[in-house]
Design brief:
Elements: H1 4-10, E1 22-27, E2 31-37, H2 57-73, E3 81-93, E4 102-113, E5 116-125, E6 128-141
């Protein structure tokens, strides 16, 4: 299990764009299972949608991407690097995600060739599929700080 501080040692995202709260398990280069506690005080709920707060689908996909990034960036050769989107395929949303939900995020790396790879991504709430698809990633060097 990884706590929030350990997650931030692996991926570069920070609040308010850090979309995972804890990692249950991960195998470097292979898979990761993480969780996002969906809270009403998150800034996107102010406008999405007033009176009917729903987590934007793009943020669910970002949470999945960050989960996959834990698997990829925890590999020794990728420490200190970043993982960027290369594509999103076969992605479908099956259930709304609302404040109070705990989003379970699972990503399995199904292809890797050099710095490019594909992860099979699944987001669920209480066992119900919220989103499912494939995420293509590219591992890149982080820019040097001045």
């Amino acid at each position: 299990m990884l706590n929030i501080n350990e997650i931030m040692e692996i991926i570069p995202q920070r609040a308010p764009f850090l979309m995972i709260d804890k990692v249950e398990e991960y195998v470097p280069g292979e898979s990761c299972t993480a969780y996002k506690n969906v809270c009403i005080n998150e800034p996107h709920f102010v406008g999405h949608f007033p009176g009917q707060p729903i987590m934007p689908g793009v943020l669910i996909v970002e949470a999945l991407a960050q989960t996959g990034a834990i698997a990829i960036l925890s590999m020794e050769e990728n420490k200190g690097k970043n993982a960027l989107f290369g594509g999103i395929d076969k992605l479908r949303f099956k259930r709304q995600v609302v404040p109070g939900d705990v989003l379970k995020l699972e990503v399995k790396v199904i292809k890797k060739k050099g710095p490019i790879g594909v992860g099979e991504a699944l987001a669920t709430v209480n066992g119900e599929i919220a989103a499912k698809g494939e995420l293509t990633f590219a591992v890149v060097d982080m820019p040097k700080e001045n």
